[in-house]
Every structure is written in C-alpha cells, then in structure tokens.
Structure prediction request, 475 residues.
Amino acid sequence: MSNTNSNLNPGKHVHLIGICGTAMASLAGLLQECGFKVTGSDAAAYPPMSDFLAARGIRIMEPYAEANLSPRPDAVVVGNAISRGNPELEYVLNERIPLKSLPQVLHEDFLIGRESLVVAGTHGKTTTTSMLAWIFESAGMEPSFLVGGIAENFGSSFALRPTKHFIIEGDEYDSAFFDKGPKFLHFFPDAAILTSVEFDHADIYKDLDAVKTAFKRLVNLVPRRGRIIAYDAGANVSECLAKAFCPVERYGFSESAKWRIVDLSFSRECTMWSVLKDGAPWGNLEFALAGEYNVLNATAAAALAAGYGISADAIAEALRSFKSVKRRLEVKAEVNGVTIIDDFAHHPTAIAETLKALRTRYSGARLWAVCEPRSNTLRRKVFETELAQSLAIADEVIITSIFKPEAIAENERLSVASVVNKVGAAGKRARELRDADSIVETIAPELRSGDVVAILSNGGFDGIYEKLPQRLRSK
Prediction:
C-alpha cells in the first residue's frame, strides 16, 4: 500500500495557510514525510505545534503576506480559520493556485484505500484517539494516525505507515471558508467512537439541534459492516445513534452498557478500574491519568480495539504505559511545592471535568483555576452560567479578559464581571485580571507550597505557562 494516493508527485511544493493549527501542523508533517516540499504561514506561532514544526525543519512564516507564496507553490491547503481578506488567500484566488481544505487532502491523499477509524464527540477526542493509536501500536499493528495534539508516547501528532488502519480524530468544526461542513464528514469511517454530544462551536452552529444534525450525518456514513462505540449516558448521544445502520456498542457506568465500568478507584499515582462486557468480567485496567472522563475515554478505545482482535491483556498493557497528550492535564512545572498544570480548555463541561480530575489527583490541595476565555464558545455568553459553575469547583478563580472581544458582538459577548460575581455567589473567591502579566504579578506572592494551579486556555495565553514558573523561582 502506498503512503499517499496524491496526484501531486513527491518533491512538489505545498503551502499551508494557518499551519500552526494542531491538525494543520500534523498534515504538514504527513506531507513532508511523503516527500513534498512543505512551507507554511500563520499569524502567531506558539508551542506545542511551533516546536513540533521546528523539529521537522518546517519554517513558520509570520505574518501572512503575499511574499510567503514566493516561489509559487504547486498547491495550497487553507486552514479553517482563514477567511476572505487574508492576503495569502486573496493571492491564491487571484492566481488560481490549486486550493484544498485539510479534510479534503486527508481523504483524497491518505484515507482512500485504508480502514478509517474515527474518534468523534464534543469532548475527549484527542486523548481517546491517542489512546487508540497507542493500543494498536503496542499490539504491533503499526497504525497510521492523526490527532489534534502531541501524543506523548509517540512524540508526534501523526504517523504514516504502509498498513491498513488509519486512526483519526474527527472534528465537527467546519472545513474551510469554501466548505462550511464538518471535517469529519470527509473521513468516511469504517468504525467510529462517539464520546459525547453537546452544544459547542457557537460561532458556526446555531444551536444544539444543528450540532446533533452534524453527528447524525457522521453516524449515517458508517457502513453496515462497521461498528460504533458510544457513551451510554445522555439523550443527545442516543438521539444521534437512533438511525445507525451498523452495530452500536455502548460504554459507561450503567448496568445496560455492553462495556461497563466498575470498581473505579483513584490514587495520587494511578487510576484503576474493571470492565464488564455483557455483564461478564472482561479486563482490569489502569493508567497514570487522572479523572473519570479519562476512564471513559480509555474504555471507549479499549472497546473499539477489542473489535479488531486485540486482547484484553494487550490493551491493559498498552494503557499502563500510556503517557497522555500535550496540553491535557500536563504538568508544566513544580516550583517551591506549587504544581502548575496546562489544560486545553474550550468548553465549560471540559473545564469541570478537568478540575474534578485535579480534585481526585491532588486531594486536599488548594486548587486555582486561571482561565482565559479564548475559544469561540467560551467568549460568548451562551455558557456564562455554566462557566461560572465549572470554575467554582476550584478554591481560587482568576479569569482574564476575553480574547479578541471586538470579534464578538457586544450582545453575544461573555461578561467576565458576571462570571466573577456568579463564582463569588457560589462561595469561592474570583477575580478578573487584565492579562497574563498582571495575573503572574498578582498570584505569585499568594501561592504557597501544596497549591495546584490549573491554567485553562486553548491558546498561548501570552506565555503564562513560562512566566508563572519563572516568577515563582525568583521569589
């Protein structure tokens, strides 16, 4: 099996506009591995994807400019964050340089001819995809994969092998300025995991019904010979599965789940649980990760892997050695007894699960939540109450001004002051601070040994991940 079905020959020049997105950077690596000359540009580069690209010798050109397209590339991939008015996009359209979206390239050049295993859902996609890829890898099946983050076991967000299985994170976000449908509809899954269905991406989905429609379409793509592994709680997931043509296997805590989680226990070092399949003992699992949501993610990955002939013992062995994903409960530093955690926060439910996981892992610690409302969902007032409820799980809450407020209509914009007041009404101290520098200067003198600081943002947060540890070392 060839590594790519591309009609471009290796050695041709492909330019990626918006290369620092996690999926775009991964695609850059895939294309480079296939022998293409890869260049890319972005408005702002920040870790981990900037480091990932630098390690592969792929230079990020900043800012966007026509000059970045000289010499003229043979093809351009445009990221979904790029819109009309971008100088590079305007040049590409004027010059009629061949243009594709990321999911279009993945489908046409990498997925055709392979078995596509797609992990979808509002939450848990990245970690579950990484777990599934590591289980296959540990079992000697050498999968290809693409995930929206750096899978620490691989030190990469992708792998490309001349083998059958391609494991891919299925994002419901739109594909490109010319294709507003979800990315995952390009992936034509042979099998799928569905972790959850909630309202998210408020910039492109009008309401929950629109989100459910997208997931129903994904379910409708799975062939009769395929299989769907789906979370067993929540009416939204069940509604999306109602017209599935393939077998559906549910996982979770309920007695009716085919893959049922029992005997769950947490310690400072590890998490352990058992799985019943159809009510009978199937396996005992453990790993170093914290949080009930990660147990659900791992059980979903285990269930799908078992359907591909991987034994319970092999799955258990893989999970024991699973390390996690960059920016998912990642310990960035431990300074003077203060633990600083980086977590990719995009939605109130994800924030709540993160903080609950830290409560179980660091029982008794004073927990700080430092939140930057940056995602298109968090910047809007649609989840204002839910965000306050999630943050109130922490003992101390710091929330900064929303990212690029001018991009959100004032009547739709999150009120940080309102969130602060709601957290205060729940009995927790909450403060609004302008930016990363003011946060560091304010909280560093207040931090004491034993504290855990969760930094919650889906962006670079103006380097707070480096600034706070540096300030603590200088105390």
